Amino acid sequence: MKRAIFPGSFDPFTLGHHSIVKRALAFMDEIIIGIGINENKRCLMPVEKRLESIRKLYADEPRVKVLTYSGLTVDFAQEQEAGVILRGIRTVKDFEYEEGIADINRQLSGIDTVFLFTEPEYSAISSSVVRELLHYGKDVRAFLPEGMEI
Asked: Does 135 participate in catalysis according to the annotation?
């Protein structure tokens, strides 16, 4: 079984991330969206709300699971018997940074990373930008997948 981990805090889950998961399902049997838990990081939504919202988004897709983890992504990937860490890329600068992390992950665990570029129409927005907009009371529904609640 080809299983991938898609790690991150995804607070909230943007159309770009959603499109990457949909495209990855074309060549993976299962994707585990790993919600990284860090007690020292302030999040827009409580963990339970994030889990509920993302699980609802994928309720009709049995090949997507949403789990929480703390610690290293490679350790979580090994626990889940995932052969791939999936990373979403918006820009070339993102790719350069992520490529370095992928090399470290490969050295630590032997797990490869698959990079998928966000579709061009979604590349200008990230979860951190949406978080900022929400902080200032802006309507962000245009950046979220249909059915996503925040």
From this structure: no
